Amino acid sequence: MVEAPGWDARRAREIIAEFSGVEGAMLPILHALQGEFGYVAEDATPVIAEALNLSRAEVHGVISFYHDFRHAPAGRHSLKLCRGEACQSMGSEALAQKFLAGRSLGWHETSADGSLTVDPVYCLGLCSSSPAALLDGEPIARLDLASLDEAVDEALAEAQA
Amino acid sequence: MTRIFISKDIAALAVGANKTAARLEAEAKARGLAVEIVRTGSRGMYFLETLVEVETAGGRIGYGPVAAPDVASLFDAGFLAGGAHPLRIGRTEDHPFMARQNRLTFARCGIIDPTSLADYESLGGWRGLARAIEIGPAATIAEVLKSGLRGRGGAGFPTGIKWKTVADAPADRRYVVCNFDEGDSGTFADRMIVEGDPYALIEGMTICALAIGASKGYVYCRSEYPHAGKTFSEALGLARSAGYLGSNIKGSGLSFDIELRMGAGAYVCGEETSLLESLEGRRGIVRAKPPLPAHKGLFARPTVVNNVLSLVAIPTILEHGADFYASFGMGRSRGTMPLQIAGNVRFGGLFETAFGLTLGEIVEDIGGGTATGRPVRAVQCGGPLGAYFPPALFDTPFDYEAFAARDGLIGHGGLVVFDDTVEMAQMARFAMEFCAIESCGKCTPCRIGSTRGVEVVDKIMAGDRVSENLALLEDLCQTMKFGSLCALGGFAPYPVLSAMRHFPEDFSPRALAAE
């Protein structure tokens, strides 16, 4: 079996073991794994199941329930564009469509060169400063196509420098 | 040394507060001026961010919105002494947006360094807890009951009754769980107070723990709020080191600690039983009630699940007394509510006020109408599951019962303003789409109904047998409303039905043909 990119089974076991004494450890474990590897590999399921004394189906059920957990690595940069009603009232749907079309991307897709993943998000709590987004975890707001493109291009350029 | 205050609330960061702060520091250095830049939470006037405040003999003088390129001209205008400048707003407290508020819960927010224990103590921090320790659990619960505080998450259930139920339930251990899964679009009050005054939440939860006899608390924070999570986590560490959490808190004999848990992008986890499932490590599937969480909650123990805003209101109630808090408000809606004025609005931000203002006063007078300058067409009140109100209903007072009487809800206090370019059939479709994306899948009306709802709206928008499909949509909404297990499927029909009722022209074949 070919190991998934960047996945380290031994390190994963160490992370899982760190949460052995925690009540309701599942989400903290999944967050820690995704924090370390950028996604939760299929291989993690049996290890977590054994550690928490659950079936593999139960673990798979949890991972697939939550929007945050990825099954494969994301792009090097992450853009989460808000689709909440407050952002829609300021034209976020049209903005998103134009931005995605300009980059030949759809929601949840990663660019061909692996540089950018775009996900929708339903509210960032920036509802008085719409439209808003999180770019690599940092908030940006009062966006239009020009300022969004500029911010994303800046982030992409930094990585190359 | 002149002190300058700049917010580090994410709504300020999102418009360049860090760049403004860096430029201020560099400019002061270049001019040989001694300044200390203090990073605070936000005052809630998001239309003025980045707001820069200077400490003067006459109070804090505000300038805003200040972008980095404006900084040099502020120094030229002598802003360190409160000098005149086009961006000067005067004393921040005197600004019309601030002066009309009743800041009880948000009194410190935007003024203090959020994680400074000294700042928190100097502005009344821990006094509520001290009084709770002094009067004991039973009297504390009585005080909360008497204050009339109702759950600020949206359901409006009396907080004191919930606490008493948990306190009276026999158990080997009990829990306090704070619902910080603020998923409603148009709301940000929880985020703002946790980023700006995190010790208030710690104090509120500790008072609750004392009242109900809990030794462990959890804060469930949504993952879309990483900054708030970081601030709260830092505050937890500092409070623990200072003896405000842990065993025998400040010699009171009370032992209590709080753990922060992050959600993982599921809106439904804001529903209390789904939240408990998630905390226990399972899929966020809604539980059937009864048993109520107050009887059988987290790990099957009696559990208080309260929204952030309910818990942060507690220290004020204990410090100043139930009568003081209850003297604000109207009818059965007592105290204050932080309104979150959002969307297409000129003066957007957080406005804490006693219940009773009319929707029109909030949107037109305080919010200043739309940001685009076009007429207001609709206001969605209470999040993505709240009804759309047309200007014809602007006389509705902001009160739980008054909104319910008009088939709406105040929910968590979010108000999203739309101008006349909004297409209401599209918004109705989105409500169903959102419900389909976020449904936990346990009950059929929500899981299947939301997807069917999207399809039916699509048919209406395509002009396919419009009147029959409108009747079908109405029927589907009633089924979801009365047949769903929780508020997600149960309330998703509110935006749909209100859009159909108040904006029928958007669903008529002629309007659709014109598109």
From TrEMBL, chain A:
Cofactor(s) the protein requires to work: [2Fe-2S] cluster
Entry's cofactor comment: Binds 1 [2Fe-2S] cluster.
One of the record's GO molecular function terms: oxidoreductase activity
Chain sites annotated for binding [2Fe-2S] cluster: C82, C87, C123, C127
NCBIfam families from the UniProt entry: PRK05988.1
Family label: Belongs to the complex I 24 kDa subunit family.
Listed name of the protein: Formate dehydrogenase subunit gamma
Organism: Methylocapsa palsarum
UniProt lineage: Bacteria, Pseudomonadati, Pseudomonadota, Alphaproteobacteria, Hyphomicrobiales
From TrEMBL, chain B:
Highest taxon listed in the record's lineage: Bacteria
Residues covered by the NADH-ubiquinone oxidoreductase 51kDa subunit iron-sulphur binding domain: 425-470
PROSITE patterns: COMPLEX1_51K_1, COMPLEX1_51K_2
InterPro entries hit by this protein: NADH-UbQ_OxRdtase_51kDa_CS (IPR001949), Nuo51_FMN-bd (IPR011538), Nuo51_FMN-bd_sf (IPR037225), Nuop51_4Fe4S-bd (IPR019575), Nuop51_4Fe4S-bd_sf (IPR037207)
Signal sequence region: none
This protein's UniProt keywords: 4Fe-4S, Iron, Iron-sulfur, Metal-binding
Necessary cofactors: [4Fe-4S] cluster; FMN
Entry GO MF terms: 4 iron, 4 sulfur cluster binding; FMN binding; metal ion binding; NADH dehydrogenase (ubiquinone) activity
Segments crossing the lipid bilayer: none
Gene3D superfamilies reported for this sequence: 3.10.20.600, 6.10.250.1450, NADH-ubiquinone oxidoreductase 51kDa subunit, NADH-ubiquinone oxidoreductase 51kDa subunit, iron-sulphur binding domain
PANTHER family, per database record: NADH-QUINONE OXIDOREDUCTASE SUBUNIT F (PTHR43578)
Role, per record: NDH-1 shuttles electrons from NADH, via FMN and iron-sulfur (Fe-S) centers, to quinones in the respiratory chain. The immediate electron acceptor for the enzyme in this species is believed to be ubiquinone. Couples the redox reaction to proton translocation (for every two electrons transferred, four hydrogen ions are translocated across the cytoplasmic membrane), and thus conserves the redox energy in a proton gradient.
Family: Belongs to the complex I 51 kDa subunit family.
The protein's name in its UniProt record: Formate dehydrogenase iron-sulfur subunit
Native source organism of the sequence: Methylocapsa palsarum
